[in-house]
Design a protein that fits this description.
The chain is α+β, with helices and mostly antiparallel strands. The protein contains 8 helices and 9 strands. The strands form 2 sheets. A 5-stranded antiparallel beta sheet has the order 4-3-2-1-5. A hairpin with a 3-residue loop joins strand 2 and strand 3. The radius of gyration is 38 Å and the shape is elongated.
Length: 295
């Protein structure tokens, strides 16, 4: 009995000493790892801030990823201090991560798309875009979704994956934009006068740029009108107001100079007997008149 008790005590003492050192080592690893993870987070945040134009949301996101990645490594190291097989733990974490990834496939897709949007910058806050079925002014770009405001003041929250997978037309990105205005005038009106009115109005409007040059031309011959067009360039913020003002000024100038803007017209030709010659009788007469054609 004495020998057995001594053996148990010896083994217990060895275990206590062993696990005491393991506990102290694990505690040191936890403290140092926690401090190191915070240092890595701050360093990542400051380091990304040195890149000009790097998005604030991405800075915080990548800093948090570094921090929690370091904490996971610390946790695995602590478990290794107590003799736990970390290979199985890493495999379990991988399986859990895969399961979470499959469950949150749509959400992770939005996060990946949000990162790409923030890195590549197809649009920025304050710019007006059109992407598939979504159009509006960008209010905020998040990791999951993007907030937009439509031209009539409505709130739109679009998933980042939808914006990333659609062609984006940015109406505000380039500093200047071209506009084309086409107005139909009568076939008997003076085409040269209409084109000179275009050029005169464009020269008087300070919002219309002279370089690239203004182009006035006849774009097509319609059924009842000659289509005269003008192409000019303006600064992007002035595009819409210039279009409205120029269209109104062109209409007033055409009226003052006697240039008409005709209504759609159709010429109808009757083949055969005139419909007003007589009223047909029932039967064969009705069929004979119905057989006439109009074009």
């Amino acid at each position: 009995m004495v020998m057995a008790a001594q053996t148990i005590w010896t083994e217990a003492t060895s275990l206590i000493v062993y696990y005491s050192f393991s506990f102290v080592g694990a505690l040191i690893v936890l403290v140092v790892g926690y401090m190191l993870s915070g240092f890595l987070e701050r360093s990542t945040y400051r380091g990304l801030g040195r890149f000009r134009g790097f998005d604030e949301t991405l800075r915080k996101f990548f800093a948090k990823v570094v921090r929690y990645g370091a904490l996971v490594l610390v946790g695995v190291t602590v478990l290794a201090q107590f003799g736990v097989q970390t290979t199985s733990i890493i495999a379990a974490l991988g399986a859990v991560g895969l399961a979470i990834g499959l469950a949150l496939q749509g959400t992770l897709q939005n996060i990946a798309a949000g990162i790409m949007l923030l890195v590549l910058r197809p649009f920025r806050v304050g710019e007006y875009i059109n992407a598939g079925s979504v159009a509006g002014t960008i209010q905020e770009i998040g990791l999951f979704a993007t907030e937009l405001k439509t031209y009539d003041g409505l709130f739109v929250l679009a998933p980042n994956s939808e914006l990333w997978n659609s062609p984006v037309t940015n109406y505000s990105r380039n500093p200047v934009r071209m506009n084309e205005i086409a107005i139909g005038i009568g076939y008997g009106d003076d085409i040269a006068l209409a084109l000179s009115i275009y050029a005169d109005l464009a020269g008087k409007d300070e919002r219309i740029l002279q370089d690239p040059p203004i182009n006035c031309f006849v774009s097509s011959l319609g059924d009842s009108a000659v289509i005269v067009s003008i192409r000019y360039w303006t600064k992007s913020p002035d595009w819409f107001s210039t279009k409205l003002d120029f269209t109104k000024a062109a209409k007033l100038a055409f009226d003052e100079n006697g240039i008409s803007i005709p209504f759609p017209q159709r010429d109808v030709h009757y083949i055969g007997e005139s419909p007003s010659s007589k009223v047909p009788s029932k039967g064969r007469g009705t069929a004979r008149q119905a057989g006439g054609s109009a074009r």
